[in-house]
Every structure is written in structure tokens, then in C-alpha cells.
Amino acid sequence: MSIKHQARKRFGQNFLVDQQIIGQIVSAINPQPEDNLIEIGPGMAAITEHLIKLCPGMSVLELDRDLVEFLGEKFVDYEQLTIHSGDALKTDFGQFYDGRELRLVGNLPYNISTPLLFHLLKVRHLIKDMHFMLQREVVDRIGAGPGTKAYGRLSVMIQYHCRVSPLIPVPPESFRPAPKVQSAVVRLKPHKTMPWVCDNEVLLSKVVSQCFQQRRKTLRNCLRPLTDSLEIPAEVIDLSRRAEQLEVGEFVRLTNFINNSRQLS
Ligand code: SAH
Per the CATH hierarchy, to which homologous superfamily does domain 201-264 belong? Predict the structure, then answer.
């Protein structure tokens, strides 16, 4: 395949062309030769060609078959590189674990970024860290704290699992074609020791969604469908508060209380 790959919208293709930004991303990742490094959506290898020099045994996972072929040709001399052809959303990332924790990186298609993050969190215990280019608005939401407009379900659910560090703001001009939105690179590091232990993570997700569904309403109103006639004492959570005021740990405490009360009844 020639260098003139026509960017495909349906695969969310916005290729990085800004060498300065690419350099900053590679430095932030700081790949080591012994890393279990996996790049999702390498595209035309803008980042890959730098990563591979530092970590020749890396792997890539690409959905677009034309690009898979291109990568095979481009890196024909890199015998240690593994190229996987497939959809990241349907890939079991546990298969990449070989005793070394995964280091995931990618300039992700923005239309799949949130589902992909939740997909990856299923194997968070196998992951060392993740560096992803996302829409800046999504990075803002992931990193937001209580009392801010950006704070919501995504902030709570990601911060429950990971430490979040927004790293590099990236303008549209850094890509071809230029996306309509601002972007940013974020680092997510799954907690090795969980700061809060939730007894029922499925319920946590339900509670958080329910609480943020109408973020202006009190928790009492939001939670009614989930808690029925359950009394939640003020020591657990004051239900006259609103979701956007609660810290992650408070959502966990609330969920554990509801979970334990259900088991007793
Ligand atoms: N990393 C490159 C390409 C970014 S564009 C760069 O920075 O220039 C996003 C890339 O993800 C494209 O190569 C696209 O084909 C690929 N992609 C899109 N959906 C994917 C999926 N579900 N699984 C794996 N790769 C995907």
C-alpha cells in the first residue's frame, strides 16, 4: 500500500502529523525494552515508529486491514513486532498478559473511546498504565472533581479504578485530517491498592448513573427507584445533597450500604 492512505471516517482516522506532539507523547510513555507495550490503532505508525525503537518487542492492534498490510511492509525488518488485526472493542486484552503487566497506548478513534475504556477496565488488574489521546472534553470529564460542571458518571467510574493524569493538550492542527474538536493525552494508572473497596461494582455503576441522571435533583429523589423503601441514615450519606457534590469514596459508601441492606432483606 502506498503512503497515500485515504483517511477513513468510519474508522475514526485522524493521523498525527505534529512531530513535537509525537515526541512529547513518546516521552510521557517512556517505553522500556522489556515492556509489554501494546498500541491500539497504530494507523500509519506516526507514534509506532518511535515506540518500536525503544521497545522492539511491542505489539499493535489495528482494525483497518489496509493499514495492517501497510504496517507489515513498513516494519518487515522488525522481527519482534507483533501485528494483530482486529477490533479493540472485541479483543480480550487478557490474552496479552504474559506475566508482564500491559502498557496500553493509542490515539483512539473518539467514537469508541468511552466504551473502549470500560472494556479495558474489565482487565485493569493486568494493566500497568494507559496513555490515550482523547477528545479534550472527555479528558476533562475523566479528571474532574466534585463541584465542577465536568464531574459526572465518567469521572467517578474511571477514578474508582484509576489514577488520572491529564498530560498534553493537542490542537486540531496536529492531525490530518484535523478533527473538529480539541484533544488531549491522558495517563490512567489502575490503582494497585484500591483506595475504596466496593462490594458490588455493578451496583456502583447503577447507583452512579441513577444519581447523575438528574444532577440538579437531590440524591433522595434520584435514588428512589433503586432504594425503594430503604432508609439511608445521614451518617452514610445525607440525601439532601446532590450527586455532583459527592466524592468517589462517598458513592462507594452509599453503594455498599445499599448492597448490604439488600442482602439482609
Ligand atoms: N495512531 C495513529 C492513528 C490514529 S487514527 C496516529 O496517531 O496517527 C485511529 C486509528 O485507530 C486508525 O488507524 C483506525 O483504523 C484505528 N481503529 C479504529 N477503530 C479501531 C478499533 N475498534 N480497534 C482497533 N483499531 C481501530
Answer: rRNA adenine dimethylase, C-terminal domain (1.10.8.100)
